[in-house]
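S., here's the first fold you wanted:
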Amino acid sequence: MATSTAAVLPRRAGISRAAIVGWSIVAGYVVLGVASLALERAHVGRPGFLELWLSVAVLAYAVIGALVLSSQPRHVIGWMFCIAALSFGLAFFAGEYAVQALVVAPGTLPFGYAAAWFGLWAQLPAIAVVGLFLPLLFPDGHLPSPRWRPAAFGAGAVVCLAVLTTMFAPTTYANAGYPSIRNPFGLDAYADVFNVADMVLEPLLLVVVGFGAAALVFRLRTANGVRRQQLKWFAYGAALMTLSFLVSSLAKILPVLAPVNEPLAVLALTALPVAVGTAILRHRLYDIDLIINKTIVYALLTAVLAGVYTGAVAFFQRLFVATTGQGSDIAIVATLFVLATVFTPIKNRLQESVDHRVKAKRGPGARSAIDDLVSLAELHGRGILTDEEFAAKKKRILGI
């Protein structure tokens, strides 16, 4: 029987304390989030959809962390997620508080400059937890092997340097639209030194991210069973996050990507904590194979249909111009007809191709856990297996 990568510890007093701390952080983040949105509404009006969803996505980190701590109180990633959510919540609140205290209604709230300083760097530990340390420590909270310790120490050093640099750099809230709010502890005389530090930090951060990706690949190459499914979930969430960053960067150059930029960012922000929580808690763990299959199919289908649509519109438009001397909206109608005609055959062909490749990788005659679960469900539905037998065999397949 497969075992979990982080064994569930016996219930004792420490577990309840960990759960209390975890859910207290969830409650604290909710208070900070509501207060931040209220302050934002007071000085800029109704918050945008992306801001609201960002708050919900960070709440997902807190909830997943609390759930992990409730079942496995010593799991490092549970604590990491709770701390990351609290860090983000404090940074959001500090930034909105500083705007209210220093710009919207100066003098009405105390400690405005302290809040402004705190808001500049408080989110950096959370970003480090999610972007740098999570790939190194997932899924059991330990490094792949002692040989990876230099990478972990290097990541810690980069984070400390980034935090210290941000604490004392002569920066402002210009990105948030408030250039008048400056770092009260910014050392203007050393502005050139901080610029050089930023230039050095950027490639170092990329190197650390590369080590995290290498650690994930290393684990995937040596993993099987439950561990491999857990890593697939994390890789799926991380891939969506990476794709979101790429699309966001390319949208500045290719305006055609702008409409999908925000929805993809919303999806990616939520996908990573959900993927990590599913992997560690092992709820519906084996669904990842089906999800990856469908993602590949519909991603390829979207790309193909986008190409067909663009080509068909251009073709029919040129045809109408050549025959009538003017453009026509009939080109759009004809294109939609073409898409409706080719949609199903293309989808079926792509599905067959993906299924064939997946089965080929498993080898001839190999069966996945999903195949076994489907067979069990059919036997249970026919009454061949009792409820107790079905539950026992399902637990055996899932390694519970």
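And the second, which I think is the more interesting of the pair:
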Amino acid sequence: MNQSHDIVQGVILDENLTLALKDLTDLCGISDELLALLVGEGLLAPRGESPADWRFDGLQVRRIRRALRLSHDLELDWPATALALDLLDEIDRLRERLQGLESQGARWD
């Protein structure tokens, strides 16, 4: 019997992790120019004044990957991708809030 095995790789990221521009572009497989465009479109919010000083937290990696997937899969331009990400973030916040309320015993009858 011939079995196929897929190899899945992942990176565990700590939200307290701090990445410089080069680290982030290498980790996400994107160019410096694309990263600057994503910052310009408001998709990312680095700390620091200039690209040489920019620092990103671990959550930005997830955001970049999500943005790339949305842009590719739905053929969105970057402003539309930024809007979609903001809406997805809001849905995540609302789900967390709802779970918190449900764990406190809130009823919706």
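Why I say that: The chain is about 55% helix and 5% strand. The mean pLDDT is 86.

Talk tomorrow,
H.
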